[in-house]
Design goal:
Strands 1, 2, 3, 4, 5, 14, 15, 16, 17 and 18 form a 10-stranded mixed sheet that branches. Strands 7-8-9-6-10-13-12-11 form an 8-stranded mixed sheet. The protein has a single domain, classed as 2,3-Dihydroxybiphenyl 1,2-Dioxygenase, domain 1, CATH 3.10.180.10. Helix content is 16%, strand content 41%. It has helices spanning 20-30, 44-50, 105-109, 172-182, 199-202, 257-267; strands at 7-17, 34-35, 40-41, 57-62, 71-76, 95-101, 115-125, 128-136, 142-147, 162-169, 186-191, 207-213, 219-225, 239-240, 244-254, 271-279, 283-291, 297-302. By secondary structure, it is an alpha+beta fold. The radius of gyration is 18 Å and the shape is globular. Residues 80-93 and 235-245 have low confidence and may be disordered.
């Protein structure tokens, strides 16, 4: 009998950029993430697995101080080999924003490095009220900042690694079972309709569903339903300007790759690869990538036993 895979933690979000240095300055100098290993070539096997040019170079950035939250894996490449994304489908990736925790939303509001800043605004998420703001960094990567606790003085925009993602969908009910029944996430809150106080941050979104995984490092996925179909939207992280840049996918640690494959077959979701792959920064591991509805890839890496 097929079982639900256990998602242990968010490993990283993959962000592609044409040049590493400006993106590293933004994610470290502005956001406050810490550069891990020195930039270098990514494993050729891993690049081929992801459909990336084999000469791609990368840089990992982790959460400040504690390292909590998922890492940002920057990938420098000038062109992509993934046929799913074409000039006619610049919106192919539905991942709309990185979700980051901030110690002081006023610091975000005053940041010159963010484009098209929206907010801050106060709004409810389940039983608690948070302060949120959204802005764009290099290569149109959207960042959604959330302040949970009383503000603290800070020089950077975030005090942790990536806490989750916002995922743009056409129809929440078509996607939700994959994240809950398939991957075992728990619906934390649903905003339907979206409260007026949240409009400065999320625009015309009609419905937002917050899903949580309470593993070693809890993280969230916000399913953001918009009245305009994805095929007509141009405000997502992906854009086409002669290169493919933006959020490429995300990576999570799971207890069983076999359980992910069985679950993907049950939900009729395409998978890429299945076997031991040399991971950047962490060595060889059993890995499979799942194509997400609406676009984007979810890499599932089996925890070493």
């Amino acid at each position: 009998m097929a079982r639900t895979p256990t998602v242990i933690a968010l490993r990283s979000v993959l962000v592609t950029v044409p040049v590493l240095a400006p993106a590293v300055r933004f994610f470290s100098g502005t956001l406050g993430l810490q550069a891990g290993e020195r930039p270098g070539p990514l494993p050729r096997e891993w690049c081929a697995y992801w459909g990336l040019p084999t000469e791609s170079r990368g840089q990992r950035l982790v959460g400040p101080e504690t390292g909590r939250g998922g890492a940002v894996d920057l990938i420098a490449m000038r062109e992509a080999a993934d046929p799913i994304r074409t000039p006619a489908r610049p919106w192919a990736n539905g991942i709309a924003a990185l979700r980051l925790r901030t110690a002081n939303i006023d610091t975000v509001a005053a940041a010159d490095a963010l484009d098209a800043l929206a907010g801050p605004a106060s709004y409810p998420v389940g039983p608690r009220t948070v302060l949120g703001a959204r802005g764009y960094g290099p290569e149109n990567v959207a960042c959604w900042f959330v302040q949970h606790d009383p503000p603290r003085d800070t020089h950077h925009l975030t005090d942790s690694g990536v806490q989750g993602i916002a995922f743009a969908v056409d129809h929440t009910d078509d996607v939700l079972p994959l994240f809950t029944d398939g991957f075992g996430g728990t619906v934390q809150a649903t905003q339907d309709p979206v409260p007026a106080a949240m409009r400065p941050v999320v625009g015309a979104a009609e419905r937002i569903t917050w899903i949580e995984w309470a593993g070693e490092e809890p993280f969230h996925v916000a399913l953001v339903e918009h009245p305009t179909p994805l095929s007509e939207r141009r405000d997502l992280s992906w854009r086409y300007n002669g290169r493919f840049t933006g959020v490429w996918g995300l990576s999570v640690t799971v207890d069983s790759v076999d359980a992910v494959v069985q679950m993907a077959d049950r939900f009729r979701q395409p998978v890429r690869g299945r076997g031991r792959v040399t991971q950047p920064y962490s060595g060889r591991a059993r890995t499979v990538a799942l194509r997400l509805p609406g676009g984007g890839w979810l890499e599932c890496v089996e925890a070493s036993g």
